[in-house]
């Protein structure tokens, strides 16, 4: 038995040897990683081994020449056999044919001879397998001790057996084999224990039974084989003399070479298996990690795909999924009814455009929190995009509960928001629909909730509306009008009404505002509020505006030609939409309308609502500047309902502020509206802009506005929107000095189905 590898890799000694000088240097060179105990053990083994060898050599000194020849041959054979070790699996030990040779010599010549050869074989083995002198010295010492002990015991045992069983006769073969077997195992145990103690001592541990257990199976086999072979060789030698040994050596050599080869292959296969197993384990580990990563990214993807990135609320896709389930549940026998609310904010675009997108985002996040806080645990709120949210109310506890929820939501959303250092007050319009309408797809549900929301907006915003089947009809009508509007311009169905504008102080006619009407062949005269939103959505706004612009300019020019004395003092106001302002050819169109009609630029005023102006500030600024340079007037319509800042008002090329009629309508002495109107008037005065109050319906309103210093007025009290013919009488007749015209025989130009066309009067 040989230590195949060197002892554990050097580590700094924990105990330093007590001795100094040469011993310390020797220790540092020989046993650098040995602590005090391991050092003591090593020296003890070496001393005992040396003593054992000395004793053995001493005993052999007087031996015959044949003995020495056997010793030399045996040593050589053992060393050569050591070159072909049979490694024992999972152990640091190996078995060599040298063991057999040593056992044969033990049986033939006794323990001292075997001890010398075992020491020589161990020296050769350790020389080959380790560079450490500590091992090269200790290995032969250990072998000598173990063999001397085990071998002496064998001979002692055989002598006893001989004396008891067959005094004076040849040795009993069975006893020889059995005793040799026992000796071989004792030799192994001795050498393993002696060897195993050393690394344990270095780690300050005790030898454990487990250190030996792992190798017993193989060693048992190898030693049993060696012991049996050696005892058979010995017995044959006894009977047939030295020739047997000479004959057996090649047989044994071949056997061991074959074993060496076989075990080597096995070892390589085991090593390859181990490498493969390790690779497989690594791959499995990688696969598990990969799977986990995939699962995590799948979860991330799922979240991204089904949630809104800004608010983390479910998105439209997720809502449609949930709605699908809700629709199915409502159609099931248990009929789990549900409701859906569609929410839209009434001024979100304005917030976004005037305070920036970050503020808009912040607002939406706050909104999402407020909506969530108002819901019951089972309800789901989703963000559909922009400022559109939807709420799915499941396990419906009656429609009244949904209405109560809508009211709660509106109340929560009407409280001021603090965004980008500004306090914002906004409102939501909510459309609600219920599963009782018998939906079959989630899209139908959303469509109807959306329709109801438009109904709420149309009814004046900041309110909720319930979907009813009547709305289906409205939607259908909307679609029909969209189709018909495309032909309305070509077929001459669009016409203009003209509402006079008066100087409040003098009562003099200042001009007209052109207001478009649709003379629908079936539905009668339609107000712009009905068809302009359809035109905007269907992309027809620019064509309509062009028609209005050309028609209005030509009309005023016509009146001027008719009454050159008074009409030239009048102006024509034309409303323009956000689409017009954004259109690259808008300025060119205005100047063409002026050129074609022969109207002077200063006689034309373009009206933009405050919302449009603020939401398209950048392009509006460039366009209005150009128009101003041409001489065209600019009025801000519905002023007071948007978020114009003073800095914008001061820098924008604006001539007139048109106070929204909602302020005029509630104008009573001391009211909040009166304060607003007063401040708009003084703002206009200080910025050098004309101020016009629209929607004057009563004499007190007119008087109050006049008293406040409001320059211009417009409203049903003064004159309703008039047909072209009626307006011609005002513009060209004597009546222009006599406004207000109420009491005059002019019917407002609205439901007048008989009246046709764009004829200019
Ligand atoms: P607007 O420019 O503010 O026009 C004034 C609206 O107030 C008109 O409604 C007019 O009929 C109405 N009105 C006038 N005096 C009174 C009053 O004393 N009391 C009340 N309650 N209402 C009064 P209309 O003609 O229905 O137009 C509504 C809006 O449609 C207009 O508001 C304007 O923004 C838009 N619009 C009208 N014609 C055109 C057009 O040709 N192009 C564009 N882009 N928009 C137009
Ligand atoms: Mg207007
Ligand atoms: Mg207005």
- How many beta-strand segments? 19
Compute the CA-based radius of gyration: 56 Å
Beta-strand share of residues? 5-15%
Strand order of the largest sheet: 11-12-14-15-16-17-18-19
End-to-end distance, in Å? 129 Å
As residue ranges, the low-confidence spans are 1-19, 742-748, 750-761
**Biggest sheet layout:** 8 strands, mixed, barrel
The number of helical runs is 26
What spatial form do the alpha-carbon principal axes imply? rod-shaped
Task: Bin the helical content.
Answer: 55-70%
Q: In words, what does this structure look like?
A:
With 761 residues, the protein is an alpha/beta fold. 59% of the residues lie in helices and 13% in strands. The strands form four sheets. An eight-stranded mixed beta barrel has the order 11-12-14-15-16-17-18-19, surrounded by four helices. Mean pLDDT is 84; it is low at 1-19, 742-748 and 750-761. It binds ligand C2E and magnesium ion (2 copies). The site of one magnesium ion (MG) has 4 residues, from loops. The site of one magnesium ion has 4 residues, from β16.
């Amino acid at each position: 038995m040989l230590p195949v590898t060197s002892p554990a890799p050097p580590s700094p000694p924990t105990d330093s040897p007590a001795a100094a000088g040469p011993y310390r240097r020797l220790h540092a060179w020989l046993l650098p990683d040995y602590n005090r105990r391991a050092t003591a053990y090593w020296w003890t083994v070496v001393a005992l081994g040396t003593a054992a060898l000395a004793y053995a050599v001493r005993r052999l000194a007087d031996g015959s020449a044949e003995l020495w020849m056997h010793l030399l041959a045996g040593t050589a054979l053992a060393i050569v056999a050591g070159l072909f070790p049979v490694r024992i699996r999972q152990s640091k030990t190996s078995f060599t044919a040298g063991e057999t040779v040593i056992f044969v010599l033990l049986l033939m010549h006794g323990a001292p001879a075997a001890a010398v050869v075992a020491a020589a074989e161990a020296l050769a083995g350790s020389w080959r397998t380790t560079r450490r002198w500590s091992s090269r010295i200790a290995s032969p010492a250990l072998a000598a001790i173990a063999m001397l002990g085990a071998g002496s015991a064998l001979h002692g045992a055989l002598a006893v057996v001989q004396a008891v069983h067959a005094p004076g006769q040849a040795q009993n073969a069975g006893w020889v084999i059995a005793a040799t077997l026992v000796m071989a195992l004792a030799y192994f145990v001795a050498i393993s224990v002696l060897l195993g103690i050393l690394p344990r001592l270095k780690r300050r541990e005790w030898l454990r039974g487990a250190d030996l257990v792992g190798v017993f199976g193989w060693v048992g086999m190898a030693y049993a084989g060696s012991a049996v072979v050696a005892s058979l060789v010995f017995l044959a030698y006894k009977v047939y003399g030295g020739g047997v040994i000479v004959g057996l050596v090649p047989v044994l050599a071949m056997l061991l070479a074959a074993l060496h080869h076989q075990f080597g292959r096995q070892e390589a296969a085991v090593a390859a298996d181990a490498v493969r197993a390790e690779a497989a384990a690594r791959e499995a580990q990688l696969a598990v990690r990969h799977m986990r990563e995939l699962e995590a990214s799948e979860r991330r993807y799922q979240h991204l795909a089904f949630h809104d990135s800004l608010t983390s609320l479910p998105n439209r896709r997720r809502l449609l999924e949930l709605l699908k389930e809700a629709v199915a549940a409502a159609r099931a026998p248990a009929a789990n009814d549900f409701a859906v609310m569609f929410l839209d904010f009434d001024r979100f675009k304005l917030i976004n455009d005037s305070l920036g997108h970050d503020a808009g985002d912040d607002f939406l996040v706050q909104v999402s929190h407020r909506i969530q806080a108002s819901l019951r645990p089972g309800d789901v709120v989703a963000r559909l995009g922009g400022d559109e949210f939807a709420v799915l109310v499941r396990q419906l506890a009656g429609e009244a509960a949904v209405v109560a929820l809508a009211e709660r939501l509106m109340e929560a959303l009407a409280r001021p928001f603090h965004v980008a250092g500004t306090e914002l007050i906004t409102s939501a319009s909510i459309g609600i629909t219920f599963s009782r309408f018998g939906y079959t797809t989630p899209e139908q549900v959303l469509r109807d909730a959306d329709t109801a929301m438009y109904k709420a907006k149309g009814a004046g915003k900041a309110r909720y509306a319930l979907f009813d089947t009547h709305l289906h009809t409205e939607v259908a009508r909307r679609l029909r009008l969209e189709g018909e509007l495309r032909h309305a311009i070509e077929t001459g169905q669009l016409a203009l009404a003209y509402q006079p504008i008066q100087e409040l102080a003098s009562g003099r006619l200042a001009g007209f505002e052109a207001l478009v009407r649709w003379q629908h062949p079936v539905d009668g005269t339609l107000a712009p509020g009905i068809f302009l939103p359809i035109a905007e959505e269907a992309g027809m706004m620019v064509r309509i505006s062009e028609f209005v612009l050309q028609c209005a300019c030509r009309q005023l020019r016509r009146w001027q030609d008719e009454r050159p004395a008074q009409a030239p003092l009048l102006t024509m106001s034309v409303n323009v939409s956000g689409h017009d302002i954004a259109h690259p050819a808008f300025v060119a169109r205005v100047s063409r309308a002026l050129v074609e009609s022969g109207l002077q630029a200063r006689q034309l005023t373009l009206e933009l609502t405050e919302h449009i102006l603020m939401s398209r500030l950048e392009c509006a600024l460039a366009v209005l500047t150009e128009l101003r340079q041409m001489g065209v007037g600019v009025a801000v319509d519905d002023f007071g309902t948007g978020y114009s800042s003073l800095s914008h008002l001061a820098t924008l090329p604006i001539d007139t502020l048109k106070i929204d009629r909602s302020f005029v309508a509630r104008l009573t002495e001391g009211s909040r509206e009166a304060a607003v109107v007063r401040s708009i008037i003084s703002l206009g005065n200080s910025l050098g802009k004309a101020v016009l109050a629209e929607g004057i319906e009563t004499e007190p309103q007119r008087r109050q506005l006049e008293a406040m210093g409001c320059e211009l007025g417009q409203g049903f009290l003064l004159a309703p929107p008039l047909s072209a013919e009626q307006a011609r009488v005002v513009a060209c007749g004597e009546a222009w000095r006599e406004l207000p015209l109420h009491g005059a025989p002019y019917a407002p130009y609205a439901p007048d189905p008989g009246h046709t066309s764009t004829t200019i009067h």
